[in-house]
Amino acid sequence: MTIPLKENRIFLLAHFVLLCIVLIGFGRTFYLRSLFLTQPLPLVLLLHGMALSAWYGIVVLQGVLMIKAQRRWHVRVAWFVIPVVACVIASGVQVNLNVARQISSARSPENMFVWGNFMSLVSFVILVTAGVVFRHRWVAHHRLIFFASLAIIGPAFARFAFWPAIGLGLAAAPIFAIAGMILLVLLAVAYDVTIFRRVQRATLAGLAGVLIPLIGGTAVAITGVGFGLLHQ
Fold first, then answer.
1. Which pTM does this prediction carry?
2. Suppose 217 and one of 65, 81, 115, 128 were both cysteines; which one would form an S-S bond, judging by CB atoms 3.0 to 4.6 Å apart?
3. For each successive 10 residues of the chain (232 residues), what is the average pLDDT?
4. CA-based torsion, 81, 188, 115, 158: positive or negative
5. How many independent structural domains does the chain possess?
């Protein structure tokens, strides 16, 4: 089935927006770190940042290749996703564990980040896998890969709260993460309704992949269950 050019352009734009959110959100602590911070970045954080950058960069490149009708290169580049996803997961788990072990109170807002991130990594793997399985169904493939990217973008939104121009800090970071992700989810739903007059099943699956980690991670953090698991 021929993929409408408009559809390709819309999802290329969507992934480009996600890439920009990552670049801006982590600009102060990763990409432009030397301008704002003097402490060296631990190796695991460096690897995690590189893996995430590679993921968001690859999905943008894949969108460009589809617009240029370079299907053969699109398939070749897709193979690079395997080691990138593996690195995102391995480094993400280690980063979360490191942060979790440093948290001294079940009431710390960082608990929400840790357990939301753990659950988001699971959603990321499931949605990417589903996107690969349905790679020949462009409606599902586009949405599943988009929501896979959206599932792990919460930390980038959260970093906006730390930028000097905003200066709200850790207490407001969860609000930025949740509000940003929900806004993008609503835009995706609105797009489906506008184009298809209904929400696609892949969008509903992606919606679950985003909301379940947000709700579940928040519940595990607020109740103190997560803190108790790693601080027995």
1. 0.89
2. 115
3. 74 94 92 85 92 95 91 91 94 88 75 82 94 90 94 91 81 85 93 92 92 83 74 66
4. positive
5. 1
